[in-house]
Design goal:
148 residues, single chain, 43% helix, alpha+beta
């Protein structure tokens, strides 16, 4: 399994990718990118807005959504959609498992090898996967300790 790059490396990669594709890099967009590169908690759009407002007070929710959509369309971030909570965002676009706590909602990456590859699926079935989402639901250590 490939390692996920560090925050600074991720930020530089995202900025370079957007520049290469001709996107305008406003201070607000740069702050959103910086936050996503450093915050591995899989923040939601409202979390992103609140945190980015500390440095760019005039940012709007529409700017956050537009930037997230742009990053998602370019394949630079992944959106985790849920039916019972706000969607969350992550910069780790490598195949990995998300560990989702049913108690506090925390999402953590588990970057071990997934049990099968896209190539194996295509070879056996003819279906060509373009992405995957693999999740385990349960309770994090903190929530389990609170239950005791």
């Amino acid at each position: 399994m490939r390692r996920h790059p560090g925050p600074q490396e991720t930020e530089l990669k995202l900025i370079a990718s957007l520049r290469e594709k001709g996107y305008k890099l406003t201070p607000q967009r740069c702050e959103i990118i910086r936050l996503l590169a450093r915050d591995r908690s899989h923040p939601g759009a409202m979390d992103i807005l609140e945190k980015v407002r500390q440095k760019a007070s005039k940012i709007s929710m529409s700017t956050v959504y537009y930037t997230l959509d742009m990053l998602k369309k370019e394949g630079l971030i992944r959106e985790l959609e849920f039916y019972d909570r706000d969607n969350r965002y992550e910069v780790n676009v490598l195949n990995h498992v998300n560990l989702i706590c049913r108690g506090c909602g925390k999402i953590e990456d588990f970057s071990e090898a997934v049990p099968f590859s896209s190539e194996m699926i295509e070879e056996r079935t003819g279906f060509r996967p373009e992405g995957m989402r693999f999740e385990y639901y349960g309770y994090c250590k903190g929530c389990r300790e609170k239950k005791r």
